[in-house]
Amino acid sequence: MPSEIQIPWDWYIVRASALVGFLLLYVSIFIGTVSCLPGIKKYFLRLKSLNFHCWISLQALIFALFHGVALLFHQFIKFSFADVFVPFHSSFEPILVGLGTSGFYLMLILVATSYARKYISAKIWRSIHFLNIGLYIVVIIHAFYLGTDLKTGLLREIFIWANGFLILLLLLNMINRIWSRAKNLPIICENPILNENLRPGYPAGGEKRSPENFRRRI
Ligand code: HEM
User: Counting atoms of ligand 1 from 1, which one is nearest the CA of 60?
Assistant: First the structure.
């Protein structure tokens, strides 16, 4: 009688939730970036809604949490609660798993501060929001070097090219910001929460960030 084949559902769930979480995070960062890029941002007007940007980040966080919790049920590698939720505690690949845990907390901070943006000054919110670059780097390293599905094959190719493309957009965005600052130009993003004047008292071109502008642009 043939021996019964065990389907490792726990492992599939860990991997599937990780890939969906990463995809959602990618979409969120992509929208945040293209909504600031001159020349391209007009093509993304339908996606510019701040609520969508926040909502998709929240979904990414939920999938990342699911991915972490699913590891607690992993049959082959035993993960304790602390292994998953205390950075660099795991004895299995402590650095790479720790980067995943750190990424999870960075996501938590970014989502929480975006939903609580009304209670935070624009300057503090913006400083916190720059953590998304760190989050992106940390999660790319975590996924690329730890993930089973990203070791070989088509998924690996897609991962490399898609992330290369987004990194290029992030660099263009950064160059645009530095250039605009140097020339004293307004930095206007289609996404209303990103459309703030970085220079206090900035007069021309851009709108001041005010509750009226905020409501109107949403
Ligand atoms: C809660 C803390 C986290 C822990 C403990 C953790 C742990 C792990 C582990 C052990 C793997 C290897 C799974 C395998 O292929 O066998 C993995 C893969 C992966 N993780 Fe995480 N992770 C965490 C957070 C995150 C976050 C925040 C993201 C991004 C949304 C993420 C995205 C990924 C991706 C994309 C993979 C590759 C999946 C694959 O190749 O199938 N992880 N993670």
Answer: 30
Structurally, how many domains does the chain consist of? 1
Is residue 162 in some structural domain? Answer: yes
pLDDT in tens, 82-117: 999 999 999 999 999 999 999 999 999 999 999 898
- Whether residue 86 lies inside any domain: the answer is yes
Q: Give the closest residue to 51 by CA, choosing from 121, 128, 111.
A: 111
Measured from the Cα of 79, ligand 1's closest atom is 5
User: What pTM was computed for the model?
Assistant: 0.85
Q: Could you tell me if residue 29 is inside a domain?
A: yes
| Residues near 23 by beta carbon (within 8 Å), at least 6 away in sequence | none
Give the model confidence (pLDDT) of 20-75 as tens digits: 999 999 999 998 898 888 888 777 766 656 578 889 999 999 999 999 999 999 88
Q: Is 29 in the pocket of ligand 1 (CB under 6 A)?
A: no
**155-157-160 Cα angle (round to 5):** 110
> Residue 66 corresponds to which tokens in the numbers above?
């699911």
Residue 150, domain extent: 9-217
In a domain, 163, yes or no: yes
CA of 194: how far to CAs of 85, 103, 157, 181, 207, in Å? 31, 22, 32, 15, 12
